[in-house]
Each structure stands twice: as C-alpha cells, then as structure tokens.
C-alpha cells in the first residue's frame, strides 16, 4: 500500500470525525458501533485504526472536534437549546 501524505491523512482523520458526529446524532454513542462508523466513512476497519485505537477514542476526539469547530454540531442538530 502506498504511503499517504500528511495532508491526505489529516483530511481522512477529519472526515472520520465529521462522519462519527453524524452517527452520534442519529444513533447515540451507545447505539452506534465501529461498523456504523466504517460504513458512514466508506473506509475499511484498518483505515480507521490507522487514525484511532478504538471506538472510545474516535468518540472522544469527535466530541472534542465538534466542540472546537462548533458548526459541526449545529449542522447535525447536536447542539443544546439550554
């Protein structure tokens, strides 16, 4: 498998985080699986594990990413009204 450049890897990681937020908004953290994330991202399990160790790490990073970018949660309906 050819090596990917840093820009590609960064974009792929961000895509995984954004798609994970979409999964969380539909299924909740407990209701989604790594297979759901994989399908949403259209990536292999190995490609996801290149960036993250497990589901918990993906979720934690996705939530952190959503809080930093803010707009990701607003677009997926995950912001609170309170």
Automatic annotation (TrEMBL):
Transmembrane stretches in the record are none
Residue ranges of DNA binding? 33-52
Q: Could you tell me the superkingdom of the organism this chain comes from?
A: Bacteria
Keyword flag Transcription regulation? yes
Looking up InterPro entries in the UniProt record yields: DNA-bd_HTH_TetR-type_CS, Homeodomain-like_sf, HTH-type_TetR-like_transc_reg, HTH_TetR
Q: Which PROSITE patterns does the record cross-reference, listed alphabetically?
A: HTH_TETR_1, HTH_TETR_2
Keyword Transcription regulation attributed: yes
Instruction: Note one Pfam family from the annotation.
Output: TetR_N
Q: Which ranges of the sequence are coiled-coil? A: none
Specify the HTH tetR-type domain's residue ranges.
10-70
Keyword entries, A-Z = DNA-binding, Transcription, Transcription regulation
- What is this protein's name? Transcriptional regulator, TetR family
Q: Which lineage ranks, top first, belong to the organism behind this chain? A: Bacteria, Pseudomonadati, Pseudomonadota, Alphaproteobacteria, Sphingomonadales
